[in-house]
Here is the input.
Amino acid sequence: MATDRQVTRVVTGQPTSDGAGVRLTRVLGTPQLDHLDPFLLLDEFKSDRPGDYLAGFPDHPHRGFETVTYMLAGAMHHRDHVGNEGELVAGSAQWMTAGRGIVHSEMPRQKDGLMWGFQLWVNLPARNKMTAPRYQDIPPEKIPEAELAPGVRARVIAGEAGGVRGPVEGIVTQPLYLDVRMEPRSRVTVAVTPGHAAFAYVYEGRAALGGGANAQDIAAGRLAVLGDGDRLEAVTGDAPARFLLLAARPLREPIARYGPFVMNTREEIAQAVEDYQSGKLASGV
Ligand code: FE2
Here is the structure.
């Protein structure tokens, strides 16, 4: 029998700044919600004031996890220490497996106009933390859209929805990453793998999430942590809704975290810092 995932917790994003002074809203990875194994962080950046984003994210390292960038508006230029580079344009996604080490920059490609998108951090298990770095750059036209119900469409970035499979492949935590768009007065049920950690982040409008009488109304700017089950029901009223739906296999491993390094132990963090300072972190990509 199908079991509805219910909202177990609701958190509100907190304004912060990161990189060289980019203003953003941190929704996951805050004192309120430190992580949701295997998800470590979710940032939403949305601004049409260039002063909020022009400084960008100059050269910085990552080790031990994956960063996922999804753009709704504007464009970023990505470049790493071995010369891999690319444009992250509106509607595109980049799934970067940092593995043993990447040093890269993520800088705005525009001087004005709206910049809007998300960055998600997904943890890697101990046995994959030192894997070779890997990029999956997905241009907008390679992200398929599924019609999940009348008035409900989802862009499928990773995983499967409505019989449509997303382009991101070979990720160890078997993620589902959907960008769902609901018209007013619509209803949808989305399959979510039981046992996987899951959350929905509403970024426009509002929707009632969860099944039946226990559904909770979630407004834009709120993240709903979902309990276990094999499906999520979402219903809209007079307003439309847009939300990200994320799910992935939890790792249940110790987390040692220091800035852009996420390992299992303090010793591994110390090693990452040392490798970065000596230039070893980024060698051999
Ligand atoms: Fe980065």
Summary: The helical segments are 50-53, 266-278. The first strand starts at residue 7 and ends at 12.
